[in-house]
Amino acid sequence: MYVTCIGNFDGVHLGHRQIMKRTVELSRRLGVRSSAISMIYPWAYYFPNFPGIIYPVSQRIELILSTGIHEVITANMAEIKHLEPREFINGLIGQGVTGIVVGRDFTFGSGAKGNTALLEGMAGEMGFFVDTVPDCVLDGRRISSSWIREALAKGEIRQVNALLGQRYSIRGRVYRDQQLGSKMGFPTANITRGEERLVTPKSGVYIVRSIIEGKELFGLLNVGFRPTVQVTEEVKYEVYYFDFSGDLYDKNIEIEFLEFIRPELKFDGLQLLIEQIKHDEKIARRWLELHSEEL
Questions:
Q1: Higher pLDDT, 47 or 155
Q2: Within a 10 A sphere around the Cβ of 147, how many other Cβ atoms?
Q3: % helix / strand / coil in the chain, to the nearest 5?
Q4: What are 201-255's pLDDT values in tens digits?
Q5: I need a labelling partner for 264 at 20 to 30 A (CA). Which of 22, 56, 74, 131 fits?
Q6: Using N-to-C axis directions, what is the helix angle for 157-164 and 145-153, rounded to 10°?
Q7: SS3 assignment, position 123
Q8: What is the DSSP string of 29-90?
C-alpha cells in the first residue's frame, strides 16, 4: 500500500519538497510506504523552444529520495498521455495506492482533462484520499520550475538557490580538450553534461564549489562559447579550481553554483584574458572570505 505524490518534480524545488514532506508524513501516520511518480520529461520537453530541464533524471531521483520518499516511479509522458483520467487513476489504485498528494495546479489524463476537483470526486467514489498542498510562495510569487529556468537564464544564482532550497549544481564527466587553460597558467577541467536537454545557465563566470576525493574545492566556472580563443557552437563548461593540482580526466564531478561574477566577454588577445581571469580570481577569493560563514 502506498501514499503517492505525482508531478514532474523538475528541480525538486521548495514547492515540490512541501508536497513530498506531506506525502512522507501521511505515509508514516498510516503505516504504509511513500512513493513519488515523476514524469520523466514535461510535455514541453519534446518541443524545440523548451529551455531544458533543471536536473537530469538520475539526479532528480536522488533529490526526491533525499526527502524521505521510499520509492520513485518514473513515467513517460509520451506513453501515458492518451489515458483518460479515470483510466489513469484506476491504474494507480490497482498498484496499491491509497492516497494521492498533489499541488493545486495538478492536471492528469488525456488533454489534461483531469484536475484536483475531478480527482477529489473520484476519491470519494473509488475509496482513496486526496491531499492538495497549497502553493509555496516566495516574495509574493508562486515557486515554479519555470521561474527557476528564468532565473538561471539571467544568472540570478542566489535567487535560484533560494527557490531550490539548496545550491543549484551541474554534474558531468571531465574530458580532455585543448588544455588551453593550463597553457595560460589556469589548469581547467572541461565537463560534458550528457545527452539530456538541460537548461543552460547564463553565459559567464561563476564562483563554484565541489567536493573531490573528500576535499572541498572552490573555483571559477566559465559557461559559454570561448569567444576570445575559439568560438564554439555548443556551450562549454570549464572549471578552474583554486589551489588544486591533480588529474581529473574521466572523473565525474559535481559543481555547485555560489555566485555569478560577470558575463562572458571577448578580449583582444590571450594576455587580456589572462589578466581578467586573475582579476576574477581575486574577486572570487574575496567573496569567499566575506561569505565563509554561509559555506
A1: 155
A2: 18
A3: 35, 30, 35
A4: 999 999 999 999 899 999 999 999 877 777 777 899 999 999 998 889 999 999 9
A5: 56
A6: 160
A7: helix
A8: HHT-EEEEEEESS-GGGGSTT---BSS-HHHHHHHHHTTT-SEEEEE-HHHHTTS-HHHHHH
